[in-house]
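Give me structure tokens for this 66-residue protein.
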Amino acid sequence: MATVVKCPTCRRPVEWSAESVYRPFCSDRCRLIDLGAWFSEQHKIPDDPQEDERLGAPHGDVPEDP
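Here you go.
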């Protein structure tokens, strides 16, 4: 019996199996909606500004290797 998860975009049930080519999404449409949300920064991974300051990098930039 395959595991069933909810599509992150529309919450429809999705069977987690090799036949579900868009998993964890239910369709290509839901996959593209999610991708667009990342591109427009509606979804983002939080950062730690204090960590950037300790490394000497301006906020959001990655320090260069010496």
